[in-house]
Amino acid sequence: MRTSIEINRSALTNNIKVFRKLVGKKRVLSVAVKANSYGHGLVEASGIFVKAGADWLIVDSVEEGIELREAGIDVPILIVGYVPLKQLGKLFDYDFRAVVYNKQTAKKLSTLANSRRKKIGVHVKIETGTTRQGVTPKEIIPFIKTIKSDYIDIEGALTHFANIEDVLEHDFADKQLDIFKSTVELLKAHKLPLKYVHCANSGAAILFPKTHFNMVRVGIGAYGMWPSQETKLTAMRMHRNQLGLQPAMTVKSMIAQIKDVPAGSYVGYGCTYKTTKKSKIAIVPIGYFDGYDRKLSNTGYVLIHGKRAPVRGRVCMNMIMVDISDISNVRLEDPVVIMGKQKSESITAEQLGEWIGTINYEVTTRFREGLPRVIKK
Length: 377
Ligand SMILES: *Cc1c(COP(=O)(O)O)cnc(C)c1O
Prior knowledge:
Mean pLDDT: 97
Low-confidence stretches: none
Bound molecules: pyridoxal-5'-phosphate
Number of domains: 2
CATH topology of the largest domain: TIM Barrel
Helix content: 25-40%
Shape: elongated
Largest sheet: 10 strands, mixed
CATH class of the largest domain: Alpha Beta
CATH architecture of the largest domain: Alpha-Beta Barrel
Number of helices: 12
């Protein structure tokens, strides 16, 4: 294969151990594997996480959950995204847990549970200020009352922080936490046992033990990346170290052609780049179809022989052109690192994100699902 994504097993395993140490043995350590495991390969990364000691997996959709079950993964799976009313039966078929926040869902689920006589666990999402999925504290008791089945176990309550990773001041998160806590108390006062109370994503799990309750939901950190520079700075101040998270993904391609071109040659669509001197240009078979953003045109770099080679001209659908004038002895099919380490150089997801004005989350999730994920070590 000419372009593939290598996944470092020991890095992913290490990251789970880091979070286990952070949250202790007794808490449920759930790992978000939505978005193709943040681009790392849904089934591949999930298998590694479970083996490393992750207790639960979190997916966005029923389809993702089914893929995991069909791959033989049998740990609890919590679906946090919307499940269409027509798909609710699948929750019973595949033993999924689901986050609920719509009355229509609660009603339909109650009818299904009663007719199937099968237990199902649901987690109630509480709106605390993110204005995303969730039921406001005011509406929560009437909402709970729409769940009318002894087969439905309201085992969890959760919320999600709006900006815990984007700021150095955490007063908004504190306010959300207060609202969450009082709503959980309200639910408990209505005799809901709530075995699982959870709100911590990676940022909260790393920075605030008070958000751990008895379950955390870790995403980006499990892949060895930081939720943000702010979180990293705050964490280093608090923990006095970097926790030892290790990125696990290397995107690799190869040289498809090498050409010597005279000064004044245009490169690529739109003639947006013109060589200023006699140059050596290499063609690399990765393009925006693969998740290599077109904004990297004349902006990004790749690694060849451990050196940075600049992207020249526009990123095409299936290929890019890079300048290798300063790199000697480059040959056909030499490896090209698009993201990751090569010798002492590296291009991180954060760096790629900076070049195109986005975050590491978007960079890794956008590498095309069809590119093979190869597990290393
Ligand atoms: C994706 C997701 C997480 C993980 O967030 P990170 O910032 O990647 O740690 C946690 N909770 C929910 C509901 C999510 O959808």
